[in-house]
Amino acid sequence: MSTPARYDASGQVRPDFRTGQVQPDPGTTTSAAADSSPTPAAPAREKRVTEPAELAANLARFFNRLEDHMADDPANLVLADELTAYLRDCKLRAIARAARAADEGGDYTLGDITRILGITKQSVHELMRKGQTLLAVQRARLGVVDLRERRRRRLDEAGIGERRAANH
User: Fold this and answer.
1) Residue 7: enclosing H or E segment and its boundaries?
2) Nearest residue to 28 (alpha-carbon basis) of 65, 47, 2, 6
3) d(Cα 167, Cα 145) in Å, to the nearest integer?
4) pLDDT digit string (tens) for 80-129?
5) By percentage, how much of the chain surpasses pLDDT 70?
6) Which candidate, 42, 74, 79, 75, places its Cα nearest to that of 62?
7) Rounded distance, CA 140 to CA 134, Å?
8) Are strands 6-7 and 13-14 parallel, antiparallel or unpaired?
């Protein structure tokens, strides 16, 4: 059984979003030749951009719901500790990446980062070192370091120099 065709505002038939095929209206007949002809694929959907503030608001709603679960079953309180640790590590990695971008001429300087966080430059450097350690562990776990080293070795063996700066 075919699904009803979808029409746009001008009355034109739109292709099915899942298959890219135009589905005939129920009760209409089509020739075999028309059924076998390929229909153009639906245009690619534009990737939705989630603003950081929107993401933070969604996380806040998520945490409010998690609070309800923890209140109903205190055994779930351990999840808060896990999430707190994960969020702390996420912040440290982000600080390390932002500081590296600042060193490489990014939009924000290290001074900007200290003012945004409201802490001293020494504290930012300390957090940055912790974040760099976490990034190194994460990359090692994902095999990024090994892949980068293998790539570098292959280029050396081929006598080809590095053409792009590595994103650490």
Assistant:
1) strand 6-7
2) 2
3) 11
4) 999 999 999 999 999 999 999 998 888 999 999 999 999 999 999 999 99
5) 72
6) 79
7) 10
8) antiparallel
Where are the chain's structural domains? 56-158
H or E segment to which residue 92 belongs = helix 77-103
User: Per residue in 124-153, pLDDT tens?
Assistant: 999 999 999 999 998 888 777 677 788 888
Cβ burial, residue 46 (10 Å; 0-12/13-18/19+): exposed
Distance CA(92)–CA(12), nearest Å, equals 52
Coil, helix or strand for 12? coil
And the tokens for 29?
């007949």
With beta carbons less than 8 A apart as the criterion, state whether 41 and 15 touch: yes
Q: Which residues pair with 6 in a beta bridge?
A: 14
Spatial neighbors of 80 by CB under 8 A, at least 6 apart, are: 66, 70
Looking at residue 142, its pLDDT comes to 79
Look over the chain and give the mean of its residue pLDDT values, rounded to a whole number: 81
pTM of structure: 0.57
CA 93 to chain centre: 15
